[in-house]
Write a structure and sequence with these properties.
heterodimer, A: alpha+beta, 2 domains, eleven-stranded mixed β-sheet, two-stranded antiparallel ribbon, elongated, B: alpha/beta, five-stranded parallel β-sheet, three-stranded antiparallel β-sheet, 5 helices, 8 strands, 31% helix
């Protein structure tokens, strides 16, 4: 028998009220947890995917679309650019490294990316099986693409036109899998790599060769910090290319998404405050119901501090349980959402990760609980024993 | 076991209790008689330290066991936990063996895990007595322990209180307006209305 034991006995004695307060708090915490986990993972993931890429050059249009298409492989590119213009940019003195990307086809929702060996090297990818492509129509699968499609080295597959499932298949130009990459935790896990020439071959099948060649984008690493000030302006001034900064466009994207995230977060805080109010009402009502109990406890020797502690512990136990339940619920919801996104080959997020802010959510819930209990606890400590016992 | 001298208590301008001297030795049995409003409960509350008198001196040997008129068991706790609560709140060591011994003493050995709402009034009163003696009090006070009881239960309640006071070696004070208790007590304090 101790104060927590007595507090828990009171909570158990009112299972419905306790469950409702727990649910309200848990929903509030979960509503804050899900966007917190999602934004943290997406920011981390995008940061990893865009690391070392200072600029993307692609067709003129929306710079966000260009970055989403060429760096994160989440959107369709606006168009292609002449290979000659791209190569001219690649040879620029302010360019340290330029990686060409040719997009347009996919296999079971995983994009087929025509590129060179610098692309897997940029992400530090290692082969888990086989080798990199050595000639056209050889393909190397990212870890997630291999796991999801079940393709192994030696398998053949036909790419489908377009970046989603259901496009027309290029059955006459099958790829052969020559390698599978080990997981990197980056966008390269979710793509199928091949040479730029493969993409050209697939799309020029049956058509006369010799026309001007195109690629989709060029991933550029600057040779000098000075390039950031001059190179994008120079690129944008030309007639065919557009320059976009992954860091800048990602931040812009997050600012736009941030409004929705903030609304969701604010809604969660409102729910947590409502839960605090509910705990306050429950304890205030309980105070009236327990006047005799409190008087008897004083009669039995309880100090005023112990009576205060009794109600505080009750509120804190409720808050802690609600917060933990909310965090668990948030992680489960995040995992369900992550499973749906993974199935759609979107940004891979999971519920089985931990955000530093979650500790603060626990502190917030305990703070709200303590605040809600303060007045009832103080009133509990002021119960006059003799008049209450005398009134029977 | 206790000594009250020049005791006065007022609620506002109304004086509800005035006692020049009231003393009891260890093992004494006292009956405090008087009609409603005569100050019986006030006297018990002062003795129990629940009320500070407006005048006079109070010396009481501790610990004190109290059996309130309405019993007031904590409904969310089991019978055993109600008994252990008395030890916990008094800062004493909690002894389940003591709880079992006391419950056996009041004839409720098999009700340790019952909830108060599962008890009859007579059983609840015995639990209230058991709770009052858990800390081996030197003074055991009971407020109207026989109200609303028939003769047989009235006698049983008084037997129980006397037996438990004897067991603890405690002084027993019973406040009542019930004259049926009068013949059993040599020491009586009559309070006027």
């Amino acid at each position: 028998m101790n104060l927590p034991g007595i507090s828990l006995a009171y909570l158990r004695a009112k299972p419905l009220a306790t469950a409702l307060n727990l649910m309200l708090l848990a929903l509030g915490i979960a509503t804050i947890t899900v966007p917190m986990l999602a934004t943290q993972q997406i920011e981390e993931r995008m940061g990893r995917d865009a690391r070392g890429i200072d600029m993307v050059a692609g067709a003129k249009g929306s710079p966000i679309q260009l970055v989403l298409a060429a760096v994160f492989h989440l959107d369709a590119p606006a168009g292609n650019i002449p290979l000659a213009d791209a190569m001219e940019l690649a040879r620029h003195r302010l360019v340290k490294r330029a990686i060409p990307l040719a997009l347009g086809d996919s296999y079971k929702g995983f994009r087929i990316v025509g590129t060179n060996h610098d692309y897997p090297a940029h992400y530090g990818a290692r082969l888990a099986e086989g080798s990199l492509w050595a000639k056209p129509m050889q393909a190397v699968l990212g870890a997630e693409a291999a796991r999801s499609t079940g393709l192994r080295v030696g398998a053949k597959f036909a790419g489908a036109h377009g970046l989603g499932e259901g496009g027309e298949e290029h059955e006459e130009e099958p790829y052969q899998v020559v390698g599978v990459l080990a997981p990197t935790g980056t966008v390269i896990d979710r793509v199928v790599l091949t040479s730029v020439e493969s993409v050209w071959e697939v799309h020029e099948h049956g058509k006369p060769l010799g026309g001007p060649r195109e690629i989709t984008a060029l991933l550029v690493q600057y040779a000098s910090p000075l390039a950031a000030a001059t190179l994008p302006r120079a690129v944008n001034a030309g007639p065919t290319l557009q320059a976009a900064s992954p860091a800048y466009e990602s931040a812009r994207l997050f600012r736009m998404l941030g409004v929705g995230v903030e609304v969701l977060r604010a809604f969660g805080f409102v729910l947590v405050l409502a839960a605090g109010l509910s705990v306050f009402i429950a304890l205030t009502n309980a105070l009236e119901e327990r006047r005799y109990d409190l008087a008897v406890m004083r009669m039995l020797g309880a100090t005023r501090a112990k009576l205060m502690g009794l109600l505080l512990i009750e509120a804190l136990a409720l808050s802690a349980a609600g917060a933990l339940l909310g965090l668990a619920l948030g992680h489960v919801l995040m995992e369900l959402l992550g499973a749906a996104l993974r199935a759609a080959q979107q940004v891979p997020v999971t519920g089985w990760t931990w955000a530093a802010g979650e500790l603060w959510l626990l502190v917030l819930a305990l703070g709200v609980g303590a605040l809600a209990a303060l007045l009832p606890a103080w009133r509990a400590s002021r119960v006059e024993v003799a008049p209450v016992l005398a009134e029977g | 076991m206790f000594s009250l001298k020049g005791l006065r208590h007022r609620y506002g301008a109304r004086e509800v209790l005035s006692l020049e001297r009231f003393e009891a030795a260890q093992g004494d049995r006292w009956l405090v008689l008087g009609p409603s409003g005569s100050g019986k409960s006030t006297l018990l509350h002062i003795l129990a330290g629940l009320l500070r008198p407006t005048g006079g001196t109070v010396e009481v040997a501790r610990p004190i066991g109290i059996v309130p008129q309405k019993l007031h068991l904590i409904s969310s706790l089991s019978v055993e936990d109600n008994l252990l609560l008395a030890q916990y709140l008094a800062g004493a060591k909690q002894e389940r063996a003591r709880a079992a011994q006391v419950l056996a003493g009041v004839g409720l050995a098999d009700r340790a895990h019952s909830r108060p709402h599962q008890l009859s009034h007579g059983e609840a009163q015995r639990v209230a007595v058991a709770r009052a003696v858990m800390n081996r009090p030197k003074l055991l006070v009971a407020d109207e322990p026989t109200s609303n009881l028939d003769d047989a239960h009235c006698a049983a309640a008084l037997d129980l209180l006397e037996a438990q006071a004897t067991e603890c070696g405690a002084t027993l004070i019973i406040a009542t307006h019930d004259s049926r208790a009068r013949p059993r007590f040599q020491h009586r304090l009559e309070l006027g209305a």
